[in-house]
Amino acid sequence: MKVQTSPKKYIDLAKDVAKPIISKIGINNFKRIVKNFPELVLPWFAHSPLLSSIYYAFISSAFHREHYSVVYGKLKYAEELKLAKNSDFLLRRNIHRLEKGLLMRPRRDIFAKDYIEETVKSYKNALLANQNEVTTNSELQWAYDVLKQYFSIVGSEPIIDKARKIFFELAPLASNNQCVPYKRDLASSLTVDYEQFLALSYRRRSVRWYLQKPVPRDLIDNAIKAAALSPSACNRQPFEFRIFDEPELVQKVASIPMGTKGFNHNFPAIIVVVGKLRAYFSERDRHIIYIDASLASMSLMYAFESLGLSSCPIN
Ligand SMILES: Cc1cc2nc3c(=O)[nH]c(=O)nc-3n(C[C@H](O)[C@H](O)[C@H](O)COP(=O)(O)O)c2cc1C
Fold first, then answer.
1. pLDDT tens per residue, range 63-101
2. Does 102 contact ligand 1 (Cβ within 6 A)?
3. Residues 82, 270: Cα–Cα separation, whole Å
């Protein structure tokens, strides 16, 4: 359908048509009719983006929760930035952007001017928040290595020099430059060949009936270790896996989604994948939680299968 670019006449039309009907039958009856006969009203609301927004604002609540989550996520992102709180998502995204700048050919003498200050601040906050695990935190090490490399090659500009000063005043980490540039180990040959991968793909199926045995936690941890290596947009990793394996809790959680009726009582464990909209400043990114979490979930399920555990994705 062609999307109208001048919706005003349709809004006027909507008002003209709806007003007398609503005044005659009342708003609740109007809503009921709209709900019961969407095929009658949908062509009308589908005339323009604005009219469809009116439909979803006043007639259908189907997007209310999503709108709320997106707005709330934006607010949280802005708050973390403003209060200079520790923001993993901002730090990951910006370190990733710096990495890309470092890899450019030819590399520019000056880059990242518009975000280097917030990146260093965010790194400083992450250092403060993780003081007890500075030496074991691979994310901090990664951020440190990239920032150090960046400041060693970038030219001089007031804003960059200011950030450089803040960075070098912080305690240095024991860097061995492992993270810059990130090196793939291509020396040893890959032990998984295509036939083996295909066999794994055939083996994985959605399994709905399980042995009544606890799932060893270390196997779940191992699978998550593999899933955590999945790609994510700007490396934000905007989701987490929440693991439930206490029978009572499993039952409670398993009864929440649709699609588990009739077999959820036999789940020995369940993992909830939670997307974090607070990782984004813009609505345009709102679907990335689904993409990134799904990519990781696929890896998770393959990893489970390789460990002798079956799984089933649920709604
Ligand atoms: C996003 C998604 C949601 C799913 N939701 C359910 C569900 O709620 N209940 C269920 O029994 N299976 C669910 N499945 C499993 C699919 O039915 C299954 O993947 C599909 O039939 C293909 O079968 P296979 O996984 O054995 O290859 C879901 C799969 C995906 C990818």
1. 999 999 999 999 999 988 776 566 789 999 999 999 999
2. no
3. 37
